[in-house]
Amino acid sequence: MSTMRILDGGMSRELLRLGAELKQPEWSALALINAPDIVRRVHQEFIAAGSEVVTTNSYALVPFHIGEDRFWKEGAELIRLAGRLAREAADSVTDRKVLVAGSLPPIFGSYEPQNFQPSRVQDYLEVLVENLGPFVDIWLGETLSLIAEAEAVRKAVAASGKPLWISFTLADDEAAIRGGEPKLRSEERVEDAASWVASSGAEALLFNCSKPEVMQAAVETAARVFRKMGASIEIGVYANAFEGETGEAAANEGLHQTRDDLNDDAYSRYACSWAEAGATIIGGCCGIGAAHIHRLKKTLLG
């Protein structure tokens, strides 16, 4: 049985809380450009709350957010900055080891599986991997909507020798919440995604940026697949706090409203159900802040 590990939470709203400006299209990348010290502070606050893994603020460092021209002119420098800020925050901790996860986002937009371009994806991933590589302990392909996106990430990091975690975003419409078969936003089955992960060389399968209500069924499905295949792969969850349905809109089209009912106590109750279902890596995504992570740590680890 793996030891429980606590991830960090969502970067964007913590940046806003600490005074950074966020606007489209740059979104959280704008903080790297205008307020890198606040990015470092967010990492530090998550670590102080109990996070054992912090994720680089590289999610928006793709042409979808910063534009094609800026990506090729400034992208490498911004990616290195994102890696360095997370590394500095992690290395400032003296009483425990904090790992840095290198965020490899969906290159062509969140929740946009139909926009995936297999012929171009490696051009962009190569820049992210090369410039994050010196700073990270783990690769985290996150908010991936289809298995082909995950395969692209696997290929991009294959030569790095560092562990790979793959995190899919799930369909979280009313049908899914009512107990439909767990699926990715591409409509591919979680069962098939877990089977792919089991043969991919990845060390962990996570589910993120979806409502907490759909996570337990995905964890249970993945655990069943891994048992059947005899695969020793960790399972993780970091849900979002978005209000309303997000399936028809890209995750970063605007500032989604967050739920009033998903306070730190409510979120920790969901987390307990994920742990009981087999998750050993738990944190938060959009709208889940340092207070939630502090409560998670106390609830799950005492």
From TrEMBL:
Keyword Hydrolase in record: no
Per UniProt, residues of the Hcy-binding domain are: 1-300
Query: By its UniProt entry, which SUPFAM superfamilies does this protein fall under?
Result: Homocysteine S-methyltransferase
Enumerate the InterPro entries for this protein: BHMT-like (IPR017226), HCY_dom (IPR003726), HCY_dom_sf (IPR036589)
Tell me the superkingdom of the source.
Answer: Bacteria
**PROSITE patterns linked:** HCY
* Gene3D superfamilies tied to this protein: Homocysteine-binding-like domain (3.20.20.330)
Q: Indicate which residues the UniProt annotation says bind Zn(2+).
A: 209, 285-286
Keywords, A to Z? Metal-binding, Methyltransferase, Transferase, Zinc
Q: Which cofactor does it need?
A: Zn(2+)
Say yes or no: keyword Zinc present. Answer: yes
Q: Name one Pfam family in it.
A: S-methyl_trans
Identification of the protein by name: Homocysteine S-methyltransferase family protein
- What organism does this protein naturally occur in? Rhizobium brockwellii
